[in-house]
Specification:
Layout: H1 3-38, E1 40-42, E2 44-51, E3 54-57, E4 65-66, E5 72-74, E6 78-81, E7 86-91, E8 96-99, E9 104-113, E10 119-135, E11 142-148, E12 153-156, E13 159-165, E14 169-174, E15 180-184, E16 187-191, E17 195-200, E18 209-210, E19 213-214, E20 229-234, E21 245-251, E22 254-261, E23 269-280, E24 287-298, E25 312-320, E26 323-332, E27 344-346, E28 353-356, E29 370-380, E30 383-394
Parallel strand pairs: 10-11, 26-27
Antiparallel strand pairs: 1-9, 2-5, 2-7, 3-4, 3-6, 6-9, 7-8, 8-10, 9-10, 10-13, 11-12, 12-15, 13-14, 14-17, 15-16, 17-18, 19-30, 20-23, 21-22, 22-30, 23-29, 24-28, 24-30, 25-26, 25-29
């Protein structure tokens, strides 16, 4: 090779080395920036057991073992509740999770960035069950709070949220405050306070709708008496007095249930409709009863001698951690004999009343875990009353 050829080659090698140097330098700078932006430190959470047996698994290959209150959960750990247990988890950022019975989840990612600006990342996988999430406030940090289910992904902001995962569907509700973005099949919906969406398998999320869940079936009687059972509870030997009746009529062009008893001899009778429910309400923070009623006539004053007989009477039977219990509401228009009116609420006569019980039933102590049934009755001596639009709404 001639001296000129050697010189040309040398200059080529030097040029290539110079380009390679800057490529490596640029790569090191970019790699450093990427590391600075993505380097994280794993964090932990603390488990508190509310009731029953709670199982945890360290990593994917470890066996399930019983946990105790105070157990630290780390990134990659899983948790499972049985049919009666509940747990409360406090995450490293002070966000919380209430995990209800029959739930399985994994703490996939619990991390904060190593460098500023500080970022928090929380990724949870919920494969089945129900949970409440309270996402804590963040003032100076960037927070990513994500929940993955078999059907959808939910991105949560600061606020209060409820999640239900069943075999074929995921339901996300925004409780008192906050916003959520729910994504499935590459499409998302935005939820604000008081809204919910549902995602069924291989489908996109439904459009936002009011977050309340109606627990009563056919409370407007638009399907006749489907879902209801009727009967009488007698306070007299059969054959010696008259029974009450319950049947549907049209009032103002709408179906209404009419309770009626006339010609009695001053003996007790309770005419009722009854619906078995068996609805788990442990995930809800609000549970409210409402109905429309019209008091036409009752000749037993107030609530009767024991304060328990009314022309319209609603009983909600529920289960708590301590056993079965009930909450009752009675309605009357006259108490000429000054009888007891335990749990009684006086209303005008011969007027349709839209009544929403002011009580939040989830604030009862002990708190309901499952609504067993609802019973709507008329009781006393002679009575005539109408009811419609019976509703028990959970949020």
């Amino acid at each position: 090779m001639t001296p000129r050829g050697l010189g040309t080659r040398a200059w080529g090698v030097m040029g290539a080395s110079f380009v390679l140097f800057w490529i490596l330098a640029f790569g090191l700078v970019m790699g450093g920036q990427w590391y600075r932006a993505n380097a994280t430190r794993s964090q932990s959470a603390q488990l508190n057991i509310i009731s029953g047996t709670v199982l945890i698994r360290k990593g994917d290959l470890s066996p399930w073992v019983s946990a105790t209150t105070g157990t630290k959960l780390k990134e990659g750990d899983s948790l499972k509740t049985d049919g009666t247990s509940q747990a409360f988890i406090v995450l490293f950022d002070n966000s919380t999770m209430t995990v209800f019975a029959g739930t399985e989840l994994k703490l996939s990612r619990l991390a904060i960035s190593r460098f500023k600006p500080r970022k928090e990342t929380i990724v949870l996988e919920v494969s089945q069950g129900k949970a409440h999430f309270g996402v804590a406030t963040t003032l100076t940090k960037e927070k990513r709070f994500r929940i993955d289910t078999p059907q959808a992904t939910a991105l949560l902001t600061e606020g209060s949220f409820a999640l239900r995962v069943e075999e074929e569907a995921t339901q996300v509700r925004v409780q008192e405050q906050g916003k959520a973005t729910v994504i499935a099949q590459q499409q998302g919906v935005e939820l604000k306070s008081g809204e919910m969406t549902e995602v069924t398998q291989s489908q996109t999320p439904t459009q936002p709708q009011p977050a309340g869940e109606e627990l009563v079936t056919n409370g407007d009687f638009s399907q006749g008496l489907n879902g209801w059972r009727m009967g009488n509870i007698l306070g007299f030997p059969q054959g010696r007095d008259v029974e009450g009746t319950a049947g549907l009529i049209l009032e103002d062009g709408r179906p209404a249930l009419r309770f009626f008893r006339q010609g009695s001899q001053g003996s007790h009778c309770e005419t009722y409709i009854y619906q078995d429910m068996g609805k788990d309400v442990s995930e809800f923070s609000s549970l409210r009863l409402s109905l429309q009623l019209k008091l036409v006539y009752h000749n037993l004053s107030g609530g009767g001698y024991m304060g328990s007989e009314y022309p319209v009477f609603v009983r909600i039977n529920y289960l708590t951690n301590q056993g079965e219990n009930s909450k009752v509401y009675g309605f009357y228009y006259q108490n000429d004999a000054n009888n007891r009116t335990d749990n009684g609420i006086q209303q005008p006569r011969n007027q349709w009343i839209n009544y929403q019980v002011p009580d939040n039933l989830m604030a009862l102590d002990p708190q309901p875990r499952r609504i067993l049934s609802i019973q709507v009755s008329a009781s006393g001596w002679n009575y005539e009353s109408l009811v419609r639009e019976i509703s028990l709404t959970a949020q």
